[in-house]
Amino acid sequence: EGVAMRDVNVPRTVLLIPNPLDAISSYHSFMSLMNAAGAVAPGDSPTYVSQQPPVEAWLDWRDNFFEGQLQLWVKHLEYWMELYPTSFNRLIISYEKLRDE
């Protein structure tokens, strides 16, 4: 959740949509790396960890949280589709298609 765009006058938008399977697994990796780096106090430099989490950690997380994360992905997409209901004022681009071209 962030700033409600309904309160901002933006007539058009570009919505860059990742494949939810890629986005959710990437989110898991990101959260694992941030947890491995530890909490960072204001003014401190974070310690970045470049190692991917073990497959077992992904499988456990997937089994417990995937459905909820998928629902959040859908909710995010629905929010933007409702905010910009016509194709005149929105452009939807697949992240994977953009990346591969």
Write the layout of secondary structure elements.
Elements: E1 13-17, H1 20-37, H2 55-83, E2 90-94, H3 95-100
Characterise the protein shown here.
The structure is a single chain. This protein has 101 residues and is mainly alpha-helical. 52% of the residues lie in helices and 10% in strands. The protein contains 3 helices and 2 strands, in the order E-H-H-E-H. The protein is elongated. The two termini are 31 Å apart.
Provide the spatial order of strands within the biggest beta sheet. 1-2
Task: Give the count of helical stretches.
Answer: 3
* Largest sheet geometry: 2 strands, parallel
Question: What is the element string, with H for helices and E for strands?
Answer: EHHEH
Shape: elongated
Helix content: 40-55%
Please mark out the parts with pLDDT under 50 across 5 or more consecutive residues, or reply none. Answer: none
Helix/sheet category:
mainly alpha
Number of strands: 2
Q: Alpha-carbon distance between the termini?
A: 31 Å
Output the keywords:
2 strands; elongated; 3 helices
